[in-house]
Amino acid sequence: MFKVLVMDGISDMGIQLLYDAADVEVDKKNGLSEDELVAIIPDYDAILVRSATKVTERIMGAGNRLKVVGRAGVGVDNIDLEAATKRGIVVINAPDGNTIATCELTFAMIMSTARMIPQAYKKTVGGEWDRKTFVGVELRNKVIGILGMGRIGSEVAKRAKVFGMEVLGYDPFLTEERAEQMGVKLGTVNDICSKADFITVHTPLTNETRHMISRPQFELMKKGARIVNCARGGIIDEMALVEAIEAGIVAGAAFDVFESEPPAADHPFLNNPRIIVTPHLGASTIEAQENVAIDVSEEVLHILREEPFKNAVNMPPVPANVLNALQPYFNLGEKLGDFLGQTVDTAVSEITVNYSGDLTDVDTSPLTRYIVKGVLQHQLEGVNVVNAMHLAKSRNLNIVVQKSSASKTFTNLVSVTLKTKNEQFTLAGTLLSGYGERIVQIDQYPVDFAPEGNLLLISHNDKPGIIGKVGTLLGSNDVNIATMQVGRKVIGGSAIMVLTIDKHTPQNVLEQLAALPELTNVREFSL
Ligand SMILES: NC(=O)C1=CN([C@@H]2O[C@H](COP(=O)(O)OP(=O)(O)OC[C@H]3O[C@@H](n4cnc5c(N)ncnc54)[C@H](O)[C@@H]3O)[C@@H](O)[C@H]2O)C=CC1
Ligand SMILES: O=C(O)C(=O)COP(=O)(O)O
């Protein structure tokens, strides 16, 4: 039974999938401190959070069953991604579910700064009928600058166009072509700050975006500019904004997010009549909360059940077409790595993977992760596809990936060579339509067997009678052979035998086999 801890008031409707799952037990909790989480996390396989709970290195360190942290939302700045990756914990988010909600809040904020709706409301309910103070501005024919043209920024741009605004955008990853399609003019941050009447930010908070708008940018702004932040506190320098308002540069600002949340009671935004504030409500609509919780629950179930999942934040994204093409090979890749990992007793220095045939046309890096995971799991604790590459790198293990255009015999072929200081071993496998996964080469020997169960790999000299001797010895020890394959390069030369055995071969039988003079090596593998 998987145990999932659901924090931060994530929508019950959205996580219904988890409640309905027979293999999942859900606990909902709120407002736990780090210490309280550290105390209970060892019981859980997954934790789901919004932005309030900080999933720290300490919490993950204590979560020895923890496989996945699910963020029911976009920003993962409350999750220690590096710590998660090191421990092989998958971090997933729900990048699409709250785009419209946040975009709509942004627009509400833009309009509120233009028309001072919250300030007017406050006075009116306070008994004042003030029609002079609240003379606003129109959006039509104004310039809006959007910093960060991702999901939310692009939706804001669409709506701004409908309001008759000229849209300037800045995003290092936005191409001119795409900007043109959206009717957005590209500019630098400073360009935009000097031209825009409204500026709204929609980037994550990173080292590059922290205080992206600070004193120098406020100095460039037109008198009367209005600023909106519904992304992350810290993208706009809060103190510099207060100064720009005092200097008469900025006419109004609307902030949904703060450098520190919740802001201190004496935060200068909280009693400034030109600044509108909301308590991080961007994603707080019924629809968005349901969407993000559904998305994250689906992915958490996939991860817990060891099924393929779409995108993890701490793994490179895999486009759907690539995932579809590679998914059938994941098990083969892991089995090849698993087999190879059992062949060596010393540290692996290099893994060379060669993809040929159909596999040359796709980005095979997700498949390489499975191979590396398979190898490393015999050398290290807690290896999975999330941390496999990280662990390989941290151990100076060289991963070489090659592609050759066509395999002579197979439509697809994955060949993996493992090198240690003194030896190397090669395996190749393929996916045969109608037969599934097959190992088709061991070192230089052609073979053909399914990578599963208990295997005996025997090296010997190609002489008559050896197969009989091996069969008799195993049979007399009650070890039943399910399949047998012999591979050799030349008659009378060195050869190998691969036997699939119904159950684990006892150690004394392995020793008897090794004592047969014709056999040069006997090893047991379990896949
Ligand atoms: N207030 C709230 O409740 C919510 C806030 N957010 C925040 O909004 C932000 C944007 O969300 P999405 O649009 O969904 O993300 P997204 O990933 O689709 O877009 C972010 C964009 O920022 C751009 N970017 C990254 N570094 C940049 C830089 N240095 N300069 C300019 N652009 C840069 C990226 O290229 C990307 O296009 C995130 O930080 C997210 O956490 C999201 C949802 C709700
Ligand atoms: O999705 C995001 O990045 C958000 O900021 C939303 O935060 P929340 O889930 O409402 O705490």
Automatic annotation (TrEMBL):
Name under which the protein is recorded: D-3-phosphoglycerate dehydrogenase
Pathway: Amino-acid biosynthesis; L-serine biosynthesis; L-serine from 3-phospho-D-glycerate: step 1/3
Catalysed reaction equations from the record: (2R)-3-phosphoglycerate + NAD(+) = 3-phosphooxypyruvate + NADH + H(+); (R)-2-hydroxyglutarate + NAD(+) = 2-oxoglutarate + NADH + H(+)
Tagged with keyword Oxidoreductase: yes
Keyword set includes Cell membrane: no
Membrane-spanning parts: none
Family the entry assigns: Belongs to the D-isomer specific 2-hydroxyacid dehydrogenase family.
Keywords: Amino-acid biosynthesis, NAD, Oxidoreductase, Serine biosynthesis
Function of the molecule: Catalyzes the reversible oxidation of 3-phospho-D-glycerate to 3-phosphonooxypyruvate, the first step of the phosphorylated L-serine biosynthesis pathway. Also catalyzes the reversible oxidation of 2-hydroxyglutarate to 2-oxoglutarate.
Gene that specifies this protein: serA
Gene Ontology MF terms in the entry: phosphoglycerate dehydrogenase activity
Leading EC class: oxidoreductase
Residues of the ACT domain: 455-527
NCBIfam families in the cross-refs: PGDH
Enzyme Commission (EC) number: 1.1.1.95
Pfam families: 2-Hacid_dh (PF00389), 2-Hacid_dh_C (PF02826), ACT (PF01842), PGDH_inter (PF19304)
